[in-house]
Design a protein that fits this description.
alpha+beta, 32% strand, five-stranded mixed sheet, 5 strands
Length: 79
């Protein structure tokens, strides 16, 4: 791996996050993502059940969320 590729990989790790909107939150505090957004998340962030993802709320804070469940139709995150 070249120096440039290594720098780009580290930069991508810092900026790639799942952007959440208020409507993504269920009454129990979990977040449910499906459809095109799920396909994008799978391709870019490669989530795994039990793992964590970087997330950010539109107009709010950035942090992490635990992947509670992952299926072909839905990604469920715990706050």
């Amino acid at each position: 791996m070249t120096w440039r590729a290594a720098v780009c990989d580290r930069y991508a790790e810092r900026v790639n996050l799942l952007l959440l909107e208020p409507g993504d939150f269920a009454a129990d505090g979990t977040v449910r993502i499906g459809g095109r957004r799920l396909a994008h998340v799978r391709g870019v962030l490669a989530p795994e059940a039990g793992g964590t993802l970087r997330v950010g709320v539109v107009g709010g804070r950035i942090g992490t969320a635990r992947v509670a469940a992952l299926s072909a139709l839905e990604l469920v995150l715990d706050p």
